[in-house]
Amino acid sequence: MHIVIMGCGRVGSTLAHILEDSGHSVAIIDRDPQAFRRLRAGFRGRRVTGVGFDRDVLEEAGIESAAAYVAVSSGDNSNIISARVARETFGVDNVVARIYDSRRAEVYQRLGIPTVATVRWTADQILRRVLPEGAEPLWRDPTGTVTLAEVAYHHGWIGTRTKKVQELAATRVAFVNRMGEALLPKEDMVLQEGDLLHVIAADTDMDRINKVLSAAPEEESH
């Protein structure tokens, strides 16, 4: 399929190469023609100089036949405006915009524009590496409402069925990572030594879940 990218920075150029290697056609837009130097010599996609909310620029990039539009320039406003133009003017359903101000994510989400809040994502990735205990976010929805997290648990939970873990901690076990393999919870699944436990829950509920799991279960759960 054809994909249009606005922003030929590190993220945009990397996406362009990955998508082209996957067999898709790509057009990349940037207002600075020097930015295209980030593209490899053999890049076959279109290079379009201009801004991603200019109709003529978008048409030159092939927006009318695009299956997806990605806005990853350095400006939040430019990304959102161009994503809205792609969707509302040209009817591209699959659009994604990168933003730096995560506080705006909920507003953009209400406009129907999926966003990636890079500051929050980067902070979460760092925290996962420097905090050895507690809930470590792996993913948050753009509004920051729902979190998928790896949660540390007391050794007393070992031998407990994941179904019982869900009941006692009042949460949902998303999956268990066992020796590098992700396993979906089943009726008879039991936590084993070394298992990494991942839950999905409301972000506001994570502190409570972490507190419950950091202590031994209060009742027999084997």
UniProtKB/TrEMBL annotation:
Domain annotation RCK N-terminal: ranges: 1-118
Q: Where does the RCK C-terminal domain lie?
A: 136-215
Q: Which InterPro entries match?
A: K_uptake_TrkA, NAD(P)-bd_dom_sf, RCK_C, RCK_C_sf, RCK_N, Trk_Ktr_HKT_K-transport
Keyword terms of this UniProt record: Ion channel, Ion transport, NAD, Potassium, Potassium transport, Transport
Ion transport among keywords: yes
Task: Kindly name one Pfam family recorded for this protein.
Answer: TrkA_N
Q: Does the keyword NAD apply?
A: yes
GO terms, biological process: monoatomic ion transmembrane transport
Entry superkingdom: Bacteria
Quote the protein name from its UniProt record.
Trk system potassium uptake protein TrkA
Species this protein is from: Sphaerisporangium dianthi
Highest lineage ranks of the organism? Answer: Bacteria, Bacillati, Actinomycetota, Actinomycetes, Streptosporangiales
